[in-house]
Amino acid sequence: MKNKLKCIMLVDDNPDDNFYHEREIQKSNLADIVVVIKTSGIDALEYLKLDKADNIHPDLILLDINMPGMNGWEFVQE
Amino acid sequence: MDELARVNRELMFQTIEREKRAAELIIANTELVFQNQEKEKRAIELSIANAELEKAAAQFRLVVESAPYAMILINSSGKIAFVNAHTEKLFCYCRNELLGRKLEVLIPERSRKYFFTHRHALLRKLSKGPMSIKSGLFALRKNGLEVQVQLDLIPIETSEGHMVLATIIDISERMFQEDLLKKQNRELEQFAYIASHDLQEPLRTVSNYIQVFEEEYSDQLDDSARRYLRSIDCATKRMIMLVKSLLSFSRLGKNAKLVNVDIGLLINEVIADLGTSVKNSKAIIEVGKMPKINVFESEIRQVFQNIISNALKFRRIEIPTVIKIWAGKTNGKWQFSVQDNGIGIDPAYFSRVFEIFQRINTSAEFEGNGIGLSNCKKIILLHNGEIWIDSIPGQGSTVHFTIPKLKI
């Protein structure tokens, strides 16, 4: 499990929370994990849709529900 | 001579007879006069009684006439036999326009069919006694507008046969106010819910960053700076807890469904859940015979949980804790009582303990956030019951609450 989890995506409009969560992940013994931070559902979708070579596909997405514009539920639906 | 004497005797006899009859006549006459006097007396009495009756009838008419609701007398053929003044006011008709007409004229088109098809059932029900329709009923005014009413029907016997007295009260204003109140209450609840829900997020950020700050800069801070930070952290954590309890308070009863619950079983589960604190306090809990009733299950569980854990929390260390729980039925309601032999509570605080975030004891002595009994009160009110507390300070308290019969 530990070996498989390579990338976590954080989707939250609050940069303070993103910073805190990234720090908590990095603090843990999963330090080599790549954390991708997006501050809106639209940005996150764009990242996931673009299949660029340097885009690592996230194994886990931590998603905020209450966001301006596209909220968490709408993001999941998309 | 003989002949003369005989005629004379005859004459005397006749005279005597006549006198006798005259006397009889006089007696009869006196009798007649007396009888006449009696009759006159009775006639006077009768006319007095009549006048009194008339007065009573007039008073009765006045009462009916000035009643603040519409009263209509309906005869056996369904026609209007009498209306009072308020009927004219409520329905905007003149009295003469209503008398002799079918009652249907006052019933909206869409309800007429119902009344017509259920007429016999209605009459059958009425023959057993008065009946009342408290809501969902509309009456039709002359101008075609409808008004929400409460209808009371009373069967009465009159000199003209079976009749029904209908009393009609305009409840549209009351219904409007009730709806408004319900709407405002819903809005207030929604407000508490949204406020407590949205306050959680920034509070969590504050708490998180206190932790980050402490981790990264602790070694650069002196003792007082670290103490200040701890105070900020404590206050923030307490606020998070308060906001959480406010949120759960505002959520109480949301989507709750009534179910039939064995209260005895539920209490045993609550006691089992409180396992360690029961064990630590070495409390003896006696539970009497409990009923099976319809309640909001998880909410009622919270009530027992709160009251029993309060009994454990506010115990007197110097004596063994004994908690007694019993139930009894009075006036069709179940009353539950939970008694402890703890520190008790001053009667001055009896009502205050049920107010949200009110705490009687200082934090250092007893932990808590002052929401337990407010939750209990809200839950019992959801069940249309009552909750109150009895106590002798220094000897113990008893919390009582009632739950009426509730239909699922």
Q: Can you put this structure into words, describing what you see?
A:
The complex is a heterodimer of chains A (78) and B (408). Chain A has one domain (7-77): Rossmann fold, CATH 3.40.50.2300. Chain A contains three helices and three strands, in the order βαβαβα. Chain A has helices spanning 15-27, 41-49, 72-77, and strands spanning 7-11, 34-38, 60-63. In chain A, strands 2-1-3 form a three-stranded parallel beta sheet. The termini of chain A are far apart. The model of chain A has no long low-confidence stretch (mean pLDDT 83). Chain B is an alpha+beta fold and 408 residues long. Chain B has four domains: 1-64; 67-170, PAS domain (Beta-Lactamase), CATH 3.30.450.20; 176-251; 258-404, Heat Shock Protein 90. Chain B has helices spanning 2-66, 85-91, 95-98, 109-117, 119-127, 172-217, 223-251, 263-273, 275-281, 297-313, 372-382; strands spanning 70-75, 80-83, 131-140, 146-158, 161-170, 258-262, 284-287, 292-296, 322-330, 333-339, 387-392, 396-404. A five-stranded antiparallel beta sheet of chain B has the order 2-1-5-4-3. In chain B, a hairpin with a 4-residue loop joins strand 1 and strand 2. The radius of gyration of chain B is 41 Å and the shape is elongated. At the A-B interface, helix 1 of A face helix 6 of B.
